Amino acid sequence: MAEVKEKGRKPSEESTDESEEEDSVEEPKLKYERLANGVTEILQKDAASCMTVHDKFLALGTHFGKVFLLDIQGNVTQKFEISPVRINQISLDESGEHVGICSEDGKVQVFGLYTREGFHENFDCPVKVVALHPRFSSSNYKQFVTGGNKLLLYERNWLKRWKTSTLHEGEGTITNVRWRANLIAWANNVGVKIYDISTKQRITNVFRDNVSLRPDMYPCSLCWKDNSTLIIGWGSSVKICAVKERDHAEMRDLPSRYVEIVSAFETEFFISGLAPLADQLVNLYFVKENSDHVEEEFRARPRLDIIQPLPEGFEEISSDALTVRNFQENECRDYRLEHSEGESLFYIISPKDIVVAKERDQDDHIDWLLDKKKYEEALMAAEISFKNVKRHEVQKIGMAYINHLVEKGDYDTAARKCQKVLGKNMELWENEVYRFKTIGQLKAISQYLPRGDLRLRPAIYEMILNEFLKTDYEGFATLIREWPGELYNNMTIVQAVADHLKKDPTNSTLLTTLAELYTYDQRYDRALEIYLRLRHKDVYQLIHKHNLFSSIEDKIVLLMDFDKEKAVDMLLDNEDKISTDRVVEELRDRPELLHIYLHKLFKRDHHKGQRYHERQIGLYAEYDRPNLLPFLRDSIHCPLEKALEICQERNFVEETVFLLSRMGNCRRALQMIMEELEDVDKAIEFAKEQDDAELWEDLISYSIDKPPFITGLLNNIGTHVDPILLIHRIKEGMEIPNLRDSLVKILHDYNLQILLREGCEKILVADSLSLLQKMHRTQMRGVRVDEESICESCHASILPSDMAQNFSVAVFHCRHMFHKECLPSPGTIPGVQFCNICSAKRRGPGSGILEMIK
């Protein structure tokens, strides 16, 4: 296999840090191997002079005039003795069925590999090149060209005779020729020409740049990228030529096609061959020993570079120095580069060695990443392209990555990667756990252990829990919360926690964890006891989840001391499990807690705790006076006498006023408002609520000698009592605050009432008029009378069978119809007739008569 050398650094850079050196190394784009088997034996006795590549096989020509057909692995399948001297070129058609061979002694042979029929000719001068029409196997394209001192085209006519025509001569030896579709490109001492076989026109002449180089020592390299793109490499220059169609308006006497050079640039070394790789180029360089740009270690080795052509330059993608056999003895003309278009294989041919370069596949990419210790990238690449990876396994790469992380001391990352790498392999999991135990890193792997469908042996989990219990109570508690109880033997862990609690009996973390363990073990009473002792927030969740209400009947006070709101809500939500009577009994010695419970009970339902309403009066008075009055208003089971007694004892005026009014003693209630509260607005509001004339009289009488009260009455009683009554009773000369404003307000209220009445009157009149007009329009509409209409009295057709006769019909607005003679006698009002059907029901508008007389 060919040795690949990466481009070296200058000696002054050798001191660069090792990590930076690794990062700067880029991954090779190609991989190399020697073409061995039969080729090795051939080149030991002979030397390669040329080779051509087909997708199915290879054809190798030697200096001793032999041609070997090889398979892709280099095994010889056929051998041809062509000449005793050097084979200059071999050409194959696209099908691989015909071959053209030319040699240094002037022999040219074109024959079928399976028929042996063809062309055999000897010339009196060396023939350097030969090229078959790409579709030579087809009967219509039996054409090929040869080149020595001139370029000859051979065509077979319908008589199966070969006709020869000269395409070009007079510019020295033809050194290279390439045929693609209808275009033939060849190189001589002057430059490169392109000939269009379909139009029989030469379409361009590309001159070589460096004429100082000998054409025989630095031959021209030609390569067709596609049917219209030719790549030329000569000396150190590269040109990419595009063959384009000429516009018809510009043709005149010019060829139908022309060539445009789309890219041209100079390289550092001499070109021995080139080939396309997608939109890039693969260049084979010959490096001269005296080059100033090459280190001693790499001098004279051929280089294979991948470059990206640009309009006026190129960008180097990769560069590899190749160690081929006898490279020290080779010249630029001794190297050739051939490629297989189907598989992107590149063959570097030298006299004593043939190296195959191919694009690196995903396995090669992973190999390189592993070699550079880029395990994470290697693992990602293997996961993404697992269908295309043949030599690597994702799990093995992952294990190598974990080992690497452990060696680096990055235990947390190594443990995290175990989830992805180990998957559901229990044996690998347990091995890793024991390895982490050995290095003292069980904590690192604990949070990543499988706990779903795949579960390890309970001893593994218990081992990790014991490790945490020894060193980290918080971490132990976290694992107990996160891990399902089925992973380990619960009793074993409970016993271990109990042993630690003997040393530290008040440790809240251990107590909480022990309660959780008891919960997993369904020993809820033990767990509840610990939660209550710790006043833990999860106690209510535990009670609800496991229906432990029977266990808390004697612990209600403890629950309410911990969290009154949650406790009361829980008790009220579960009255069917713990009765109200039981709760009241438990809270009898804690009246402040009893009040909270009964208050929330009353808020939910005013009737449920009615038997305790009498007791609640005292509780509200003692602990929650602001809610006493709302309670008295909403409760219908509260004994009013008892409530009044308590309120009078505590001098609760507002509550006493409410109770007096509710008991019917409104005059006493009003008196308390005026005498004790001295709040005229509240007194007026009270009088408005009761709407009692005697109360208004009492209020006026009480207020008549108090100017502030008179002002309040003047401002507020206008809609309930005639203000004149109050004004007449005011003593002459009494000074009343804001009297003018009060009188203005009275007048304004009066005006507002007048305006409201007038507005209502207008609306009523407008509505009446609108309805009257609507009724009038309705009654003025015509009524359809036809053959189907009948008399409501005799039930005969309303119209006579003979319309020529005179008849008289009465039609009422109610749509009832009668023959004139069937109508009863007129009513009491002269000239007005009513429908006798409707008049029995009502007498009013809409039943008047419409007469139709003919």
Number of strands: 32
Helix content: 25-40%
Spatial sequence of strands, sheet with the most strands: 1-26-25-24-23
Based on secondary structure, the structural category is alpha+beta
Shape: elongated
Low-confidence stretches: 1-24, 844-848
Provide a count of the helices.
29
Largest sheet: 5 strands, antiparallel
Give average pLDDT, whole number: 82
How far apart the termini lie comes to: 129 Å
Strand content: 15-25%
Radius of gyration over all CA atoms, rounded: 58 Å
Report on the structure:
With 854 residues, the protein is of the alpha+beta class. It is built from 29 helices and 32 strands. The strands form eight sheets. A five-stranded antiparallel sheet has the order 1-26-25-24-23, with no helix packed on it. Helix 6 runs antiparallel to helix 7 and helix 17 packs across helix 19. The protein is elongated. The termini are far apart.
Topology overview:
Layout: E1 3-6, H1 18-24, E2 30-34, H2 38-45, E3 48-53, E4 58-62, E5 66-70, E6 76-81, E7 87-92, E8 98-103, E9 107-112, E10 118-122, E11 129-132, E12 143-147, E13 150-156, E14 162-169, E15 176-180, E16 183-187, E17 191-196, E18 201-207, E19 221-226, E20 229-234, E21 237-245, H3 248-251, E22 257-266, E23 270-277, E24 280-286, E25 303-310, E26 313-323, E27 336-340, E28 345-350, E29 353-359, H4 362-371, H5 375-384, H6 394-408, H7 411-422, H8 426-438, H9 442-446, H10 458-471, H11 473-482, H12 490-503, H13 508-520, H14 524-534, H15 539-546, H16 556-562, H17 564-573, H18 580-586, H19 591-604, H20 613-623, H21 628-634, H22 640-649, H23 653-662, H24 666-677, H25 680-690, H26 693-703, H27 707-716, H28 723-729, H29 739-780, E30 808-812, E31 817-819, E32 849-853
Antiparallel strand pairs: 1-26, 2-29, 3-4, 4-5, 5-6, 7-8, 8-9, 9-10, 11-12, 12-13, 13-14, 15-16, 16-17, 17-18, 19-20, 20-21, 21-22, 23-24, 24-25, 25-26, 27-28, 28-29, 30-31, 30-32
